[in-house]
Amino acid sequence: MEIRHATNPNDAKHYTTDRLRQEYLIENMMTPGELRTVYTHQDRVIVGGAVPTTEPLKLDVGDKLKTEYFLERREIGIISVGEPIGIVVADGVEYTLEKRDCLYIGMGTKEVTFRSADPQNPARFFLMSSTAHKTYPTRKVAISEAQPTHLGALSSSNERTIYKYIHGDGINSCQLMLGMTLLKPNNMWNTMPAHVHDRRMEAYFYFDMEEDTRVFHFMGEPSETRHLVVKNEQAIISPNWSIHSGVGTSNYTFIWGMAGENYTFTDMDFVDMKDLR
Fold first, then answer.
1. How far apart are CA 70 and CA 50, in angstroms?
2. CA of residue 49 relative to chain centroid, distance
3. What is the CATH number of domain 2-261?
4. Distances from the Cα of 67 to the Cαs of 52, 57, 94, 110, 163, in angstroms?
5. Is the preceding peptide bond at 193 cis, omega within 30 degrees of 0?
6. Mind listing the pLDDT tens digit for each residue in 197-246?
7. Residue 241 confidence (pLDDT)
8. What backbone torsions phi and psi does residue 228 show, to the nearest 5 degrees?
9. Which of 3, 45, 70, 277 is the most buried (most CB within 10 A)?
10. What is the pTM assigned to this prediction?
11. What ranges do the domains of the chain cover?
């Protein structure tokens, strides 16, 4: 488990490109045969990726959390991001996930493992975990069961479909919110006009991208924007003081997850275009 510390917006104004990438970009999320996690002190969220091959991968607590097991004081959301079928086992109960299906596992679950239905064609899982104060039931929502919200327009290059999985009107949780946005062909912009929400951090995971395509992810305070160049299956840690918007060289899909002070999806402080710099 890699540890990343919280950062100050006044300091971030002076970061070089390399420093920005070190602090906010997670480059190697999906490695065959490994479960990789990053603990950020931005609201103590953990993001990670699992690609089980011949052997199942266990959600191991390691020595960083100082608890007996990973979900002793945490909850977790998992989304399958690959075509192959994946299986998550939570305290002996199996959940089969096809691409874009979501599974929430509540606090107190002692053992979680990931495996592939076909080890030669491994599944790929994105995961995000936040601290928890009570136990909510483990629950799966398939992409076919999720309620889509259609937003944007081709004229502004942001026609997209949002699927909300873990939120107040969906899978209940303590503070974790998790969903996914699919941009339609010939659409490249996300989350523009931009916003911030000082009560919550956010994480982005970009996928369904071709090898030679990129997303230019914009971050920073509205008056001091910066950008990161992101390729397929990389993630962004977005502090609560930062905007989180992007434009790609082609359409793409991204998972967004939030955790922090409140549990209101619509709590956003929108930024007027004239105030972006």
1. 15
2. 10
3. 2.60.120.10
4. 24, 19, 24, 11, 33
5. yes
6. 888 899 999 999 999 999 999 999 999 999 999 999 999 999 999 999 99
7. 95
8. -125, 135
9. 45
10. 0.94
11. 2-261
